[in-house]
Design a protein that fits this description.
Order of helices and strands of chain B: HHHHHHHHHHHHHH
Largest interface: A-B, 34 and 22 residues
Number of helices of chain A: 9
CATH topology of the domain at 105-306 in chain B: MetI-like fold
Number of strands of chain B: 0
Strand content of chain B: under 5%
Oligomer: heterodimer
Helix content of chain B: over 70%
Order of helices and strands of chain A: EEEHEEHEHHHHEHEHEEH
Radius of gyration of chain A: 18 Å
CATH architecture of the domain at 105-306 in chain B: Orthogonal Bundle
Structural class of chain A: alpha/beta
Radius of gyration of chain B: 33 Å
Largest sheet of chain A: 6 strands, mixed
Largest sheet of chain B: none
Structural class of chain B: mainly alpha
Number of strands of chain A: 10
Chain lengths: 268, 355
């Protein structure tokens, strides 16, 4: 698939997020993610991983500071301007977020909605080029044979790959992944992470992925961001993240729990 | 009421259950391990935990008292004539004899065509109701429209639901006259109320995931509705439409009673002229046709929701097909082929081509 657009830089400049209930999601985050990087975000539940990823496409609005994606500032962005930024940022979710009762190809074509006129979207009269693009995206994640199956008939791993294809169909400059493996078993988790890694390497798309498990983060993230209570406590190569670093992120020493599903919740 | 700290052994009830060990000697002489016969039911050395007090359900008592009072009041106010109740069974038998001994089957064709008029009334009314209620229920969905748009529409639905179709029809008689068309319009108005409510409730109950994904991809509000909400709400909404049609079929028979045409009108005319054998035949016809429509519509609804026909013999048909597929494809593709007979044909063609 030809990638028309350049991977985008992402810059956080003293970003703060305070939720309506007063909970501080992010506290004065300043960092820069270069175009084409693959970054893993780790931290306890409630540390702000999800918030950080969701501010990049404006799903969570920022309260202070500024985020710049490419050359567009997100603060206060609404309506068409926000939709334009979002159309260039693909997103993958923990629970796949497919429209389960329609076909796989329709789900992938949802990635083209920004470029589809209202009447075409209403009648599902997709443009031929867009269908071709969607098929290519499905080929890249090796699931094109399921194009006309109902999304609900697929296994969890297959559904997540459809979601990756949907984000690819956007021809994105950035892909965000919010705990993409949390609903998957370990072997499938590796398949999905390798897909993301390949997309990053082959297409040069910036990938920001927040991960539950440290072993996955260390293995797939060229760069690791550690969050604790909304603050950035580590930023460096995965290889540098030793025992002491993990203790600073998790507030305790590393245990087997951090490599397995169901590790403990942070007290909020 | 036992104080919280008291040991169960001191509880008179417990002692009565198991008299042999003296009170206070709970389990001291018993062997290690839980002994269900010991007064405490606990191994020795473990103090019993504090037990919760049985909660008073004051509200429940008040509700029961109120319900009982309403029932008693209702008995008083309807003024039941207990004398005539004694004669009722005999009279019932008399009229059943008049109606069904035997029913006047000669008029069956007229009855069937009158029923079809009722069904047509129900179908047209429901369709009209769908066309009007669908956009309205979109506008009444939380998260899509502001409160000042949403609440008036919801209020409109609620008013329509509160008024029975018969009353709507009576109100409309003066405008459109005593025709089947009036009945259809009354059904349309009545169904807008229920269809509208079911519509916005199923739009709101839809899984948020696809909506979030559509938003994240930069979709517009209308596109989010079409691709984030509709695919997941569609089966439920279609099923509701059919269910509403079933209700409309029953409502249309009643509308006939006030003269809006169809089977209800025929029934009313014959009751007025006391042609009981025709009335009996009409009742059998109405019940039979209504039940058939209910069954068919119900099957289609199950197909829409589950994606699979729930027909009699369906299971046997599937088994036979599976058996055939297994016989023709011994190489392990049998399972895939069984769910897709067309696929079986394809793979057979391919095998022939390879030969």
């Amino acid at each position: 698939m030809s990638q028309a657009q350049q991977a985008a830089d992402i810059a956080f400049d003293h970003v703060g997020v305070t939720y309506p209930n007063g909970f501080v999601g992010l506290d004065d985050i300043t960092l820069r993610i270069g175009g084409g990087e693959m970054v893993a975000v780790v931290g306890l539940s409630g540390a702000g991983k999800s918030t950080l990823v969701r501010t990049i496409n404006g799903l969570v609005p920022i309260s202070s500071g500024q985020i710049t994606v490419g050359d567009v500032g997100l603060k206060g962005l609404r309506g068409k301007g926000l939709r334009t930024v979002r159309s260039e940022i693909g997103m993958i979710f923990q629970s796949f977020n497919l429209a389960k009762r329609t076909t796989v190809i329709n789900n992938v074509l949802m990635g083209r909605l920004y470029h589809t006129p209202a009447w075409r979207a209403l009648l599902a009269a997709w443009k031929r080029d867009d269908v071709e693009l969607a098929m290519q995206a499905l080929e890249r994640v090796e699931i094109v044979h399921k194009a006309y199956a109902k999304a609900s008939e697929l296994s969890g791993g297959q559904q997540q790959r459809v979601a990756i294809a949907r984000s690819l169909a956007q021809r994105p400059r950035v892909i965000l992944a919010d705990e993409p493996t949390a609903s998957l078993d370990p072997p499938t988790s590796h398949v999905v992470m390798r897909d993301l890694q390949r997309i990053n390497a082959d297409l040069g798309i910036t990938v920001v992925v927040n991960l539950h498990f440290l072993d996955l983060a260390r293995r797939y993230g060229q760069r690791l961001l550690g969050l604790r209570e909304g603050r950035l406590v580590f930023d460096g190569p995965g290889a540098d993240a030793d025992e002491g670093v993990f203790e600073s992120i998790y507030g305790r020493s590393l245990t087997a729990e951090d490599m397995l599903p169901g590790h403990q919740q942070a007290a909020v | 009421m036992t104080p919280l700290g008291t040991t169960p052994a001191a509880d008179p009830l417990r002692v009565a259950e198991a008299p042999p060990p003296a009170p206070g000697s709970a389990g001291i002489g018993s062997t290690v391990g839980s002994n269900p016969d010991s007064p405490a039911g606990l191994p020795p050395g473990i103090p019993p935990a504090a037990r919760p007090k049985r909660p008073h359900r004051r509200l429940r008592q008040v509700v029961w008292a109120l319900v009982s009072a309403v029932v008693v009041a209702a008995f008083w106010s309807v003024d039941i004539s207990w004398d005539s109740l004694g004669h009722a069974p005999a009279r019932l038998v008399h009229y059943i004899g008049l109606m069904f001994g035997p029913p006047a089957w000669g008029q069956l064709p007229a009855a069937v065509s009158a029923t079809m008029l009722s069904v047509a009334m129900a179908w047209f009314g429901t369709m009209l109701g769908i066309v009007i209620s669908f956009p309205l229920s979109l506008l009444a969905t939380r998260g899509l429209t502001p409160v000042w748009v949403r609440w008036p529409i919801r209020g409109f639905f609620a008013v329509l639901r509160a008024v029975p179709e018969v009353v709507i029809a009576v109100l409309m008689l003066s405008v459109t006259g005593l025709t089947a068309y009036t009945g259809a319009l009354a059904i349309a108005l009545g169904s807008i109320g229920t269809l509208g409510k079911w519509g916005y409730e199923s739009f709101e109950a839809v899984d948020r995931g696809a909506i979030e994904a559509a938003n994240a991809a930069g979709a517009s509000r209308a596109q989010v509705m079409r691709w984030g909400v509709w695919p997941n709400a569609q089966p439920d909404v279609l099923a509701f439409w059919l269910y509403r049609f079933e209700i409309s079929v029953r409502a249309s028979a009643i509308l006939g009673l006030i003269g809006a045409g169809g089977i209800g009108k025929m029934l009313m005319d014959n009751i007025q002229f006391r042609v009981w054998d025709v009335v009996g035949m009409l009742m059998i016809t109405v019940v039979a046709i209504t039940m058939i429509i209910d069954q068919l519509s119900g099957m289609v609804r199950i197909r829409i929701i589950t994606g699979r026909w729930d027909l009699p013999f369906a299971a046997r048909l599937r088994r036979r097909r599976t058996a055939r597929a297994t016989a023709s494809a011994p190489d392990g593709t049998a399972r895939a082929a069984a769910s897709d007979p067309a696929g079986t044909a394809n793979s057979e063609d391919r095998r022939k081509a390879e030969e």
